[in-house]
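Notebook B, p. 112. Complex prediction, attempt 2.
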Amino acid sequence: MIVFERLSKKFPGVKALDDVSFRVEEGEIHGLVGENGAGKSTLIKILSGIITDYEGKLFIDGREMSFTAAHQAQNQGVATIFQELTVIRDLSVAENIFLGREPVRMGGVVDTNFMREKSREVLQYLGSTVNPGEIVGRLSIANQQIVEICKALVLNAKIIVMDEPTSSLTEHEVKQLVTFIRRLKERGLTILYVSHKMEEVFHICDTISVLRDGKFIGSVNKEESTPDEVIRMMVGRSMEAMFPPRERHIGEKLLEVRSLSRKGEFEDVSFSLYEGEIVGFAGLIGAGRTELAKTLIGAARPGAGEIRIGKRVFRGFSHPHEAYQAGIAYLPEDRKGEGLVACLTVRENIALSILRRISSYLWVKPQAELSVVDGFIKNLRIKVYHHDQVAETLSGGNQQKVVISKLLATQTDIFIFDEPTRGIDVGAKYEIYRIMNDLTKEGKGIIFISSELPEILGISDRIYCMRAGQLIKEFTHEEASPEKIMHVLTGGNII
Ligand SMILES: Nc1ncnc2c1ncn2[C@@H]1O[C@H](COP(=O)(O)OP(=O)(O)OP(=O)(O)O)[C@@H](O)[C@H]1O
Ligand SMILES: [Mg+2]
């Protein structure tokens, strides 16, 4: 059993945790939810020995813990799987599982056979078919996560903590992970599970605890509560609708892609986008959507085909700047890697992308900059105590909002949003949909890539389905349904 007793943690300008007390029973799957910046990751960092200076007490199985380093938490059986995985891509699965604890044979040689055998056993126990000899960098994110779980199991973990484990998984992979989590529970492990996906939390967890602005709001039993109630606890108000009302004013054709191909990634893709339109791209991970987006924005060159923007015809772009000049802006899927300059402040990050707009000659106009930046902070409800806060110190979801601001601050006609709401709380999701609507009111067109069918269905005017690198079906908003789309995506006959 884990008991948090009156935990408080301050950061400059914010109380990340404010007198938080609750308990996690042994052998349960316990969900932890709350809006971006509510304090979830901070709590987890205390439990896993990463944050060591805080007020309050932490008990595990009745004993008070005061970790001064992460490995101490590990020794007490707490294994944490962070959203940014810590596997080493160049090592094999078995080497990763035994990293730092390699079994040694007589003479000091690492016992590779033992490592592989043991790894195979643990993998099989979880029902995974991953080969222990495979290099981790070649595995899917889902399988890399499984390697992390195996690592924890070999460590004899009693408590497994997962911070947003499914945010980069496909629906199928999520199902697989759920099965693993259930097996862990059967084995008597306790699981603390952070997620923004309400359906998922209700599906997996026995108990759900809610944090809001660093405060503990309550714990509910899954059987006795509803997602609506939990959302109300999270946001402190009720959310009437998941999606803002959408008016459609479709104008001229903005973009036409004809027979675009890139070997091994996608083939013969043709589609169009009109002014004022949101066009959703549905597909399973690996369907080729991100690769297609990368080609449209000049990060890769197509092997064949053309891109028409207005009257201009392009045979691909050789640089993202060229695509941007032609009118295409991109919100990358991997925001940590591509979008955010972690060591700069929120203001600098946003300003970077709009230098041209707000500078006259060589001078940046500080007033213009600030009004743009503060506008985003307010509209997207970015939780910062100051616009000069370093981006790295924002909570995960708030960092994403900064990257979204960077994209919105650029003024182009065609936007590609690749998984814009990943890791973002319900309130902010609504804001992002609203902003997408506003962009379309100004006559912009949006290509919207998402793995979450409900939002694709909720806000797209048309939906293209991609499977194995091919665009195989188009639905209008009216025609589409989750069943029809899943049928197409998973390889059913196209009706
Ligand atoms: N190292 C730090 N320096 C300053 N402030 C921090 C630091 N780490 C976290 N914070 C602040 O503490 C608050 C809680 O952050 P935390 O990361 O725990 O939120 P979270 O609930 O995990 O949010 P998300 O859902 O966005 O991941 C936020 O306001 C965040 O900006
Ligand atoms: Mg977090």
